[in-house]
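User: Please run a holo structure prediction.
Assistant: Happy to. Please share the sequence and the ligand.
User: Here you go; the ligand is DOR.
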Amino acid sequence: MQLNAPLDMHLHLRDNEMLHNIAKASAETFAGALVMPNLVPPVSTKEEVVSYKKRIVDAIGNETFTPYMTLFFKPTYNRDFLEGVRDEIAAIKLYPAGITTNSEGGVSGFDAEELRPALEAMSDLGIPLCIHGETNGFVMDREAEFVSIYEKLAGAFPKLKIIMEHITTKESVAALDRYENLYATITVHHLLITLDDVAGGMLQPHLFCKPIAKRPEDREALLKVALEAHPKVMFGSDSAPHPKEAKEACGCAAGVFTAPIALQLLAELFENRGASLEKLQAFVSGNAQQIYGIKPLQKTVVLKKKPFRVPSSYSGVVPMFANEEIAYSLKEVIDGQPC
Ligand code: DOR
Ligand code: ZN
């Protein structure tokens, strides 16, 4: 099975030693990824985004891989600043304050008028807004509660592309078709697991993430739009590495590390569900190219149906399905093939 120029439109690459250890896991099999800005401190100036991109490029070595950069949204961003940084970024990521890892400097309160100067300028400049859409309500209801905020923003800024990141609920899926300017990323883990897999038996820290996996009917709603490659959804792994000690701890960090096996898992899932390779290709690349208006470098990833035992760890980070067998293996990666 061949995939052309796969893209991961939501990825955490971290910094320093972790960046050096894990960047290759994505760069080997993806042609590019949208890189999240939630470092400490968050990436929020032009200098920071330029220098973070350079550190990423250094870490990936010779691989054919484009880091599509993001800034951490601040309501104070003005038109001059955004015009100056526009060419360095593919999107800006908005986090509600304190909702997840390193999001303390995010937005509190979603008053459309207060956000208007920044969002109007982004809309005029064609900079997409990616949002981690959760309220601080009851954990299972946070994303569904946020849908009214997505709708308020989508209605107030109809030309602004808003990407609902890592959606996990049927309510978010339903919102996609109500507003022309709403799009979504979906992770592979949310297509595979429900809350039962996280906490139904013995607690599984390596499956704990934000937003938390939801109910079977939510997963079915996600599967429907992913498997049909609905043109407004695209793959974003939200692969979020944390050291083993930070996951297997009292106070487990949120994040599932899937980067090295994401395409193999998607191949297996699409096959098991009878979805075509054409749909998988659209879900992992074509839709993102359309939505973001990007043209990735040529790269062909060849997968084969041969069991692969997932390693217990990648440089001290435990992946999803560690020590388990998955059905597809990576056969080869050919750079420079036509997309
Ligand atoms: O599970 C998560 N981990 N969700 C996020 O939103 C952030 C991420 C991280 O950075 O670890
Ligand atoms: Zn994320």
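The chain has one domain: 2-338.
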